[in-house]
Amino acid sequence: MNYLTEKAKKLTPYVAGLQPRDPGWIKLNTNENPYPPSPKVTEALANADFNSLRLYPDGDSGGLSGAIAKTFGVGKENVFCGNSSDEVLALAYQAFLSGKDNVLTPDISYGFYPVWNEMYDVSAKILPLDDNYAINADDYRDGNGVIFANPNAPTGMALTLAEIERITRNNPNGAVIIDEAYMDFAQVENAVSLTKKYENLLIARTFSKSHSLAGLRVGFAVGSKALIGGLQRMKDAFNSYPLDMLAQIGAKAAILDVEYWNMTRNKIIATRNKTTEELRKLGYTVLDSHANFLFMRAENAKKFYEHLAANKVLVRYWDKPRINGFLRVTVGTDAEMEGFLQCVKRF
Questions:
Q1: Judgement on whether residues 14 and 146 belong to the same structural domain of the protein
Q2: Which end of the chain is more exposed for a tag (fewer CB within 10 A), N or C?
Protein backbone atom coordinates (compact mmCIF):
# COMPACT_ATOMS: atom_id res chain seq x y z
CA MET A 1 0.00 0.00 0.00
CA ASN A 2 1.23 3.49 -0.85
CA TYR A 3 0.84 5.71 2.21
CA LEU A 4 2.06 8.91 0.56
CA THR A 5 -0.23 11.91 0.30
CA GLU A 6 -1.06 13.17 -3.17
CA LYS A 7 1.29 16.11 -2.67
CA ALA A 8 4.13 13.83 -1.60
CA LYS A 9 3.59 11.67 -4.68
CA LYS A 10 3.86 14.69 -6.96
CA LEU A 11 7.04 16.15 -5.44
CA THR A 12 10.28 15.99 -7.40
CA PRO A 13 12.91 15.79 -4.62
CA TYR A 14 16.17 17.68 -4.72
CA VAL A 15 19.10 15.46 -5.73
CA ALA A 16 22.25 16.16 -3.73
CA GLY A 17 25.78 15.56 -5.01
CA LEU A 18 27.33 12.12 -4.60
CA GLN A 19 29.27 11.38 -1.42
CA PRO A 20 31.73 8.58 -2.32
CA ARG A 21 32.75 6.33 0.57
CA ASP A 22 35.88 4.76 -0.88
CA PRO A 23 39.21 6.67 -0.72
CA GLY A 24 41.21 8.23 -3.52
CA TRP A 25 38.66 10.61 -5.00
CA ILE A 26 39.27 14.25 -5.90
CA LYS A 27 35.85 15.42 -4.71
CA LEU A 28 34.81 18.62 -6.49
CA ASN A 29 31.05 18.16 -6.69
CA THR A 30 29.35 19.59 -3.60
CA ASN A 31 31.07 22.96 -3.01
CA GLU A 32 32.50 21.95 0.34
CA ASN A 33 35.48 23.86 1.68
CA PRO A 34 38.74 21.96 1.04
CA TYR A 35 40.27 23.28 4.27
CA PRO A 36 39.43 22.23 7.84
CA PRO A 37 37.51 24.49 10.21
CA SER A 38 39.28 27.03 12.38
CA PRO A 39 41.39 25.42 15.16
CA LYS A 40 39.32 27.54 17.52
CA VAL A 41 36.29 25.45 16.57
CA THR A 42 38.09 22.29 17.67
CA GLU A 43 39.15 24.00 20.89
CA ALA A 44 35.65 25.28 21.65
CA LEU A 45 34.06 21.89 21.05
CA ALA A 46 36.71 20.11 23.15
CA ASN A 47 35.96 22.46 26.04
CA ALA A 48 32.18 22.15 25.76
CA ASP A 49 30.19 21.09 28.81
CA PHE A 50 28.99 17.70 27.62
CA ASN A 51 26.89 17.27 30.76
CA SER A 52 24.63 19.95 29.24
CA LEU A 53 23.70 17.61 26.42
CA ARG A 54 20.98 16.21 28.67
CA LEU A 55 19.24 19.61 28.39
CA TYR A 56 17.57 21.19 25.37
CA PRO A 57 19.74 23.78 23.65
CA ASP A 58 19.09 27.51 23.62
CA GLY A 59 16.10 27.77 21.28
CA ASP A 60 17.10 31.25 20.12
CA SER A 61 20.82 30.44 19.74
CA GLY A 62 21.55 33.55 21.79
CA GLY A 63 25.34 33.34 21.93
CA LEU A 64 25.66 32.58 18.23
CA SER A 65 23.09 35.20 17.24
CA GLY A 66 25.02 37.79 19.22
CA ALA A 67 28.28 36.88 17.49
CA ILE A 68 26.62 37.08 14.06
CA ALA A 69 25.02 40.43 14.93
CA LYS A 70 28.39 41.83 16.01
CA THR A 71 30.10 40.56 12.85
CA PHE A 72 27.53 42.14 10.51
CA GLY A 73 26.81 45.28 12.49
CA VAL A 74 23.13 44.59 13.12
CA GLY A 75 21.01 44.07 16.19
CA LYS A 76 20.67 40.65 17.79
CA GLU A 77 16.93 40.92 17.13
CA ASN A 78 17.74 41.05 13.39
CA VAL A 79 19.33 37.57 13.36
CA PHE A 80 17.70 34.17 13.08
CA CYS A 81 19.64 30.89 13.35
CA GLY A 82 18.56 27.55 11.95
CA ASN A 83 19.67 24.04 11.18
CA SER A 84 21.40 24.90 7.88
CA SER A 85 20.46 27.67 5.46
CA ASP A 86 18.21 25.10 3.76
CA GLU A 87 16.01 25.01 6.85
CA VAL A 88 16.11 28.81 7.11
CA LEU A 89 15.04 29.12 3.47
CA ALA A 90 12.31 26.49 3.86
CA LEU A 91 10.92 28.40 6.85
CA ALA A 92 11.07 31.60 4.80
CA TYR A 93 9.05 29.87 2.08
CA GLN A 94 6.44 28.87 4.66
CA ALA A 95 6.31 32.29 6.30
CA PHE A 96 6.44 34.61 3.29
CA LEU A 97 5.80 32.78 0.01
CA SER A 98 3.46 29.84 0.68
CA GLY A 99 0.29 29.88 -1.42
CA LYS A 100 1.29 33.02 -3.34
CA ASP A 101 1.42 33.58 -7.08
CA ASN A 102 3.78 35.79 -9.07
CA VAL A 103 6.81 34.91 -6.94
CA LEU A 104 9.82 35.85 -9.06
CA THR A 105 12.74 33.42 -9.39
CA PRO A 106 15.32 32.52 -12.08
CA ASP A 107 15.05 29.57 -14.45
CA ILE A 108 18.55 28.53 -13.38
CA SER A 109 19.37 28.75 -9.68
CA TYR A 110 19.56 26.59 -6.56
CA GLY A 111 17.83 23.27 -7.18
CA PHE A 112 15.81 23.34 -3.95
CA TYR A 113 13.67 26.32 -5.03
CA PRO A 114 11.50 24.30 -7.48
CA VAL A 115 11.01 21.64 -4.79
CA TRP A 116 9.81 24.22 -2.27
CA ASN A 117 7.61 25.83 -4.91
CA GLU A 118 5.80 22.50 -5.22
CA MET A 119 5.80 21.74 -1.51
CA TYR A 120 4.42 25.10 -0.42
CA ASP A 121 2.05 25.73 -3.35
CA VAL A 122 3.97 28.67 -4.74
CA SER A 123 3.03 29.77 -8.26
CA ALA A 124 6.41 31.05 -9.32
CA LYS A 125 7.05 33.31 -12.27
CA ILE A 126 10.20 31.86 -13.82
CA LEU A 127 12.47 34.53 -15.28
CA PRO A 128 15.21 33.35 -17.67
CA LEU A 129 18.81 34.28 -17.18
CA ASP A 130 20.17 36.36 -20.06
CA ASP A 131 22.37 34.95 -22.83
CA ASN A 132 25.43 35.40 -20.59
CA TYR A 133 23.75 33.39 -17.78
CA ALA A 134 23.30 36.47 -15.61
CA ILE A 135 20.23 37.64 -13.70
CA ASN A 136 18.75 40.82 -15.21
CA ALA A 137 17.78 42.96 -12.25
CA ASP A 138 15.27 44.94 -14.29
CA ASP A 139 13.20 41.78 -14.89
CA TYR A 140 12.40 41.59 -11.18
CA ARG A 141 9.59 44.00 -10.40
CA ASP A 142 6.05 43.99 -8.98
CA GLY A 143 6.27 40.46 -7.59
CA ASN A 144 4.53 39.02 -4.55
CA GLY A 145 7.93 37.73 -3.47
CA VAL A 146 11.41 37.18 -4.88
CA ILE A 147 13.97 34.45 -4.25
CA PHE A 148 17.33 33.70 -5.82
CA ALA A 149 20.95 33.05 -4.91
CA ASN A 150 23.60 35.76 -5.15
CA PRO A 151 26.16 34.69 -6.25
CA ASN A 152 23.88 32.47 -8.25
CA ALA A 153 24.22 28.70 -8.36
CA PRO A 154 25.38 26.88 -10.39
CA THR A 155 26.65 29.77 -12.53
CA GLY A 156 28.67 31.66 -9.91
CA MET A 157 27.59 34.99 -11.42
CA ALA A 158 26.78 37.84 -9.00
CA LEU A 159 24.71 41.01 -8.90
CA THR A 160 26.06 44.22 -7.42
CA LEU A 161 24.69 45.81 -4.26
CA ALA A 162 23.03 48.51 -6.39
CA GLU A 163 21.22 45.84 -8.43
CA ILE A 164 20.02 44.05 -5.28
CA GLU A 165 18.71 47.37 -3.96
CA ARG A 166 16.89 48.03 -7.23
CA ILE A 167 15.19 44.62 -7.05
CA THR A 168 14.20 45.18 -3.42
CA ARG A 169 12.83 48.63 -4.15
CA ASN A 170 10.87 47.37 -7.18
CA ASN A 171 9.13 44.63 -5.17
CA PRO A 172 7.64 46.38 -2.14
CA ASN A 173 4.65 44.02 -1.82
CA GLY A 174 6.53 40.84 -0.97
CA ALA A 175 9.58 39.47 0.78
CA VAL A 176 12.80 39.64 -1.24
CA ILE A 177 14.90 36.65 -0.16
CA ILE A 178 18.54 36.64 -1.23
CA ASP A 179 20.47 33.41 -0.65
CA GLU A 180 24.06 34.50 -0.02
CA ALA A 181 25.55 31.05 0.56
CA TYR A 182 28.62 31.90 -1.57
CA MET A 183 28.93 35.64 -0.91
CA ASP A 184 32.15 35.37 1.10
CA PHE A 185 33.99 34.40 -2.10
CA ALA A 186 32.57 37.28 -4.17
CA GLN A 187 34.08 40.51 -5.43
CA VAL A 188 30.81 42.34 -4.82
CA GLU A 189 29.44 43.69 -1.55
CA ASN A 190 26.96 41.64 0.46
CA ALA A 191 23.45 43.03 0.92
CA VAL A 192 23.17 42.85 4.71
CA SER A 193 23.47 46.64 4.99
CA LEU A 194 20.28 47.02 2.94
CA THR A 195 18.24 45.15 5.56
CA LYS A 196 18.45 48.29 7.71
CA LYS A 197 16.80 50.30 4.92
CA TYR A 198 14.26 47.82 3.51
CA GLU A 199 11.89 45.93 5.81
CA ASN A 200 11.10 43.36 3.10
CA LEU A 201 14.69 42.19 2.48
CA LEU A 202 15.90 38.91 4.03
CA ILE A 203 19.47 37.65 3.62
CA ALA A 204 20.13 33.93 4.15
CA ARG A 205 23.65 32.70 4.96
CA THR A 206 25.42 29.43 5.78
CA PHE A 207 28.45 28.23 7.73
CA SER A 208 28.89 25.30 5.33
CA LYS A 209 31.03 27.06 2.73
CA SER A 210 33.46 29.75 3.88
CA HIS A 211 33.55 28.49 7.49
CA SER A 212 34.13 24.78 6.63
CA LEU A 213 31.24 23.58 8.80
CA ALA A 214 29.03 21.67 6.34
CA GLY A 215 28.96 18.78 8.81
CA LEU A 216 27.43 20.90 11.60
CA ARG A 217 24.54 22.20 9.45
CA VAL A 218 24.30 25.81 10.63
CA GLY A 219 22.57 28.62 8.78
CA PHE A 220 21.18 32.03 9.62
CA ALA A 221 19.20 34.94 8.26
CA VAL A 222 19.51 38.69 8.72
CA GLY A 223 16.52 40.97 8.26
CA SER A 224 14.00 43.32 9.80
CA LYS A 225 12.20 42.52 13.04
CA ALA A 226 9.08 41.77 11.01
CA LEU A 227 10.80 39.14 8.88
CA ILE A 228 12.81 37.62 11.73
CA GLY A 229 9.59 37.44 13.74
CA GLY A 230 7.97 35.55 10.88
CA LEU A 231 10.79 33.01 10.82
CA GLN A 232 10.58 32.56 14.58
CA ARG A 233 6.84 32.03 14.34
CA MET A 234 7.29 29.25 11.77
CA LYS A 235 10.17 27.71 13.74
CA ASP A 236 8.10 27.55 16.92
CA ALA A 237 5.26 25.93 14.98
CA PHE A 238 7.62 23.27 13.59
CA ASN A 239 10.71 22.75 15.80
CA SER A 240 11.39 25.13 18.65
CA TYR A 241 14.92 23.78 19.29
CA PRO A 242 16.38 23.55 15.78
CA LEU A 243 20.09 24.11 16.39
CA ASP A 244 21.91 21.78 18.77
CA MET A 245 24.27 22.95 21.50
CA LEU A 246 27.50 21.78 19.84
CA ALA A 247 26.57 23.36 16.52
CA GLN A 248 25.97 26.68 18.27
CA ILE A 249 29.33 26.48 20.06
CA GLY A 250 31.26 25.50 16.93
CA ALA A 251 29.65 28.12 14.69
CA LYS A 252 30.24 30.89 17.23
CA ALA A 253 33.93 30.02 17.42
CA ALA A 254 34.16 29.94 13.62
CA ILE A 255 32.59 33.34 12.98
CA LEU A 256 34.72 35.02 15.64
CA ASP A 257 37.97 33.73 14.09
CA VAL A 258 38.04 36.33 11.32
CA GLU A 259 41.75 35.86 10.63
CA TYR A 260 41.44 32.15 9.80
CA TRP A 261 38.25 32.71 7.76
CA ASN A 262 39.97 35.41 5.72
CA MET A 263 43.06 33.28 5.13
CA THR A 264 41.18 30.22 3.83
CA ARG A 265 38.73 32.14 1.67
CA ASN A 266 41.57 34.10 0.07
CA LYS A 267 43.35 30.82 -0.71
CA ILE A 268 40.19 29.52 -2.38
CA ILE A 269 39.74 32.73 -4.38
CA ALA A 270 43.36 32.58 -5.56
CA THR A 271 43.02 28.92 -6.59
CA ARG A 272 39.72 29.68 -8.33
CA ASN A 273 41.27 32.48 -10.37
CA LYS A 274 44.35 30.41 -11.24
CA THR A 275 42.23 27.42 -12.36
CA THR A 276 39.96 29.67 -14.42
CA GLU A 277 42.99 31.07 -16.22
CA GLU A 278 44.38 27.59 -16.92
CA LEU A 279 41.06 26.32 -18.27
CA ARG A 280 40.71 29.33 -20.54
CA LYS A 281 44.23 28.75 -21.87
CA LEU A 282 43.06 25.25 -22.80
CA GLY A 283 40.20 26.79 -24.78
CA TYR A 284 37.33 26.33 -22.35
CA THR A 285 34.68 28.95 -21.66
CA VAL A 286 34.45 29.57 -17.92
CA LEU A 287 31.91 32.02 -16.49
CA ASP A 288 33.23 34.72 -14.18
CA SER A 289 32.77 33.10 -10.79
CA HIS A 290 32.13 34.88 -7.50
CA ALA A 291 31.74 31.56 -5.67
CA ASN A 292 33.91 28.63 -4.56
CA PHE A 293 33.17 26.78 -7.80
CA LEU A 294 33.56 27.19 -11.55
CA PHE A 295 30.93 26.77 -14.26
CA MET A 296 32.69 25.66 -17.43
CA ARG A 297 31.28 24.95 -20.86
CA ALA A 298 32.44 21.70 -22.45
CA GLU A 299 31.61 19.84 -25.63
CA ASN A 300 30.18 16.42 -24.83
CA ALA A 301 29.79 17.55 -21.23
CA LYS A 302 28.19 14.30 -20.10
CA LYS A 303 31.05 12.23 -21.56
CA PHE A 304 33.50 14.69 -20.02
CA TYR A 305 31.83 14.13 -16.64
CA GLU A 306 32.04 10.36 -17.11
CA HIS A 307 35.73 10.61 -18.09
CA LEU A 308 36.50 12.56 -14.93
CA ALA A 309 34.52 10.14 -12.76
CA ALA A 310 36.33 7.17 -14.32
CA ASN A 311 39.55 8.81 -13.16
CA LYS A 312 38.10 9.38 -9.65
CA VAL A 313 37.56 13.10 -10.16
CA LEU A 314 34.01 13.97 -9.16
CA VAL A 315 32.31 17.15 -10.47
CA ARG A 316 28.64 18.05 -11.03
CA TYR A 317 26.65 17.64 -14.23
CA TRP A 318 22.94 18.28 -14.89
CA ASP A 319 21.17 16.91 -17.93
CA LYS A 320 18.84 19.90 -18.07
CA PRO A 321 18.01 22.50 -20.72
CA ARG A 322 20.43 25.43 -21.02
CA ILE A 323 23.03 23.93 -18.67
CA ASN A 324 23.58 20.43 -20.09
CA GLY A 325 26.69 21.72 -21.86
CA PHE A 326 28.35 22.76 -18.61
CA LEU A 327 30.16 21.20 -15.66
CA ARG A 328 30.26 22.73 -12.20
CA VAL A 329 33.62 22.26 -10.52
CA THR A 330 34.17 23.00 -6.83
CA VAL A 331 37.44 24.75 -6.05
CA GLY A 332 39.65 22.40 -4.05
CA THR A 333 43.23 22.74 -2.88
CA ASP A 334 45.95 23.65 -5.37
CA ALA A 335 46.99 19.99 -5.49
CA GLU A 336 43.41 18.82 -6.14
CA MET A 337 42.91 21.36 -8.90
CA GLU A 338 46.19 20.35 -10.51
CA GLY A 339 44.95 16.74 -10.51
CA PHE A 340 41.70 17.92 -12.08
CA LEU A 341 43.55 19.90 -14.78
CA GLN A 342 45.76 16.95 -15.67
CA CYS A 343 42.64 14.84 -16.12
CA VAL A 344 41.07 17.58 -18.25
CA LYS A 345 44.10 17.58 -20.53
CA ARG A 346 43.72 13.85 -21.10
CA PHE A 347 40.10 14.13 -22.24
A1: no
A2: N
Query: CA nearest 141: which of 100, 117, 170, 162?
Result: 170
184 plus 282 within the same structural domain: no
Domain tally for the chain? 2
The per-residue pLDDT for range 174-225, each reduced to its tens digit, is: 999 999 999 999 999 999 999 999 999 999 999 999 999 999 999 999 999 9
Specify whether 284 is located in the same domain as 250.
no
Statement: the pTM of the whole predicted model exceeds 0.90: yes
